[in-house]
Amino acid sequence: MNAWNRLQPWLRRGRTWVIALPYGWLLAFFLLPFLILLKISVSEMETVNFKDLITYKDGLLQLTLKLSNYVFMSEDTLYLDAYVRSVRYAAATTALCLWVGYPFAYFMARAKPTVQPALLMLVMLPFWTSFLLRVYAWKGLLSENGWVAEVLIGSGFDQLLAATGLIAAPGKLMHTPFSLVLGMTYTYLPFMILPLYGNLAKMDLRLLEAAADLGASPWLAFWKVTVPLSKAGIVAGSMLVFIPCVGEFVIPELLGGPETLMIGRVLWDEFFQNNDWPMASAVAVVMILLIIVPLALFNKYQAESQERAR
Question: Which residue has the higher pLDDT, 18 or 73?
Answer without folding.
Answer: 73
